[in-house]
Amino acid sequence: MARIKWITDPNKLPLSEEEKEKIKKVSEFFPMKLTEHYTKLINWEDPNDPLRKIAIPFEEELQEWGYLDPSNEKKYTVAPGLQHKYRDTALFLIAPTCLGFCRFCFRKRLFIKEKDLTGNEILLDLERAFKYIEEHEEINNVLLTGGDPLVLPTEKLRAVIERLRQIPHVKIIRIGTKALAYYPQRVTEDPEFVKMIEEFSLPDRRIYIMNDFNHPREISDETVKAVDMLLKAGAVLTNQTPLLRGVNDNPDTLRELFEKLSFIGVPPYYVFINRPVKGNKAFAVPVEEALTIFENAKIGISGLAERARLVMSHATGKIEVAGMDDEHIFFKYHRAADPENEGKLMVFKRNPDAYWFDDYNEKVAEFSFKSALSEVG
């Protein structure tokens, strides 16, 4: 694996002394970390450059707003670094850090003073985690995340994937990463990683690379090369992104992102409502505005480019923002922690000031497809 060159010192950035001092103030609490590759994608002449906002600290991050764990991930932690929220899916927080610290990260709690990581949220006991998966045969897919799994040496990642492939009921292994935006050389300059994907992404049990491209300019020539190598190795690639104020919060930018991704073989998967995370107010877009942007972005593009769903990763499940009319907004449980909520459709009075599902309190109706099916049966 090629040695990654990180920038963590604001003095290494092409900014004024005043800007560097502001960055230092924020990074004392929310650290800064980005790759040299990513610095070359940023337009340093533009203070509002969207890629700069993704990677470089700014004062608004210190605004009082939100929570450190708004999706209550701790509730679903069944072993150090292992979460089991949905019946068929287990989540490994396998990596203690990332290739870069996104300023909008929803797990900022893990990276506040990186040296002081909370031990019970990072995967430390692999054997305990593997045993849990083996004992729960309903789990057919495992998501490797963190942190970013691709920050780990290939041999360590290989050991985990090889072990998971020995569990018959685990059919899908997913790797959540922003490497193809932050440092695509992680793939292009490591033939052993590509060989590992080819070995373990099998015709009946695929490896999925869950990418995190937030803006079309993150798709560099090196990115396209990395994508091509992974596709040829047999991986399945998809993309998910939050809707971010000042980054992709207009239909034209989001449409361009969807189209570029579909052209290179990384179809959109989820667009997330930004979670109410401490430090993230500057990125937040109200739910109803987000739905309007999202629906307008899909106008005039191919079905492959518009497959994404607009969702919230709520404590109770993935709640899809399904639509709205003049008075009402419609939500549907896309995934639910409680099986009774699976597929449930909910109707609320509109609230243009709502940033999260919990901001809606005037429920008009709800409908359970599961109950309706039993009645039909």
Structure notes:
The chain has helices spanning 17-27, 36-39, 50-55, 126-135, 154-164, 179-182, 185-188, 191-200, 221-232, 251-264, 287-297, 369-376; strands spanning 6-7, 34-35, 77-79, 82-83, 89-93, 141-145, 172-177, 207-211, 236-242, 268-272, 309-314, 317-324, 328-336, 345-349, 363-367. With 377 residues, it is an alpha/beta fold. It has a single domain (6-376), classed as TIM Barrel. The chain has a 13-stranded mixed sheet. The chain has a two-stranded antiparallel ribbon with strand order 1-2. β3 and β4 (82-83) form a beta hairpin. α5 packs parallel to α8 (191-200) and α10 crosses α11 (287-297). The longest helix has 14 residues, at 251-264. The radius of gyration is 20 Å and the shape is globular.
Kindly summarize this structure in a few lines.
The protein has 377 residues and is α/β, with parallel strands linked by helices. It contains 12 helices and 15 strands.
CATH superfamily: Aldolase class I
Domains, number: 1
C-alpha geometry: globular
Largest sheet: 13 strands, mixed
**Which stretches are low in confidence, meaning pLDDT under 50 for 5 or more residues running?**
114-120
Report strand %: 15-25%
- Compute the CA-based radius of gyration: 20 Å
Structural class: alpha/beta
Q: Termini separation (Å)?
A: 56 Å
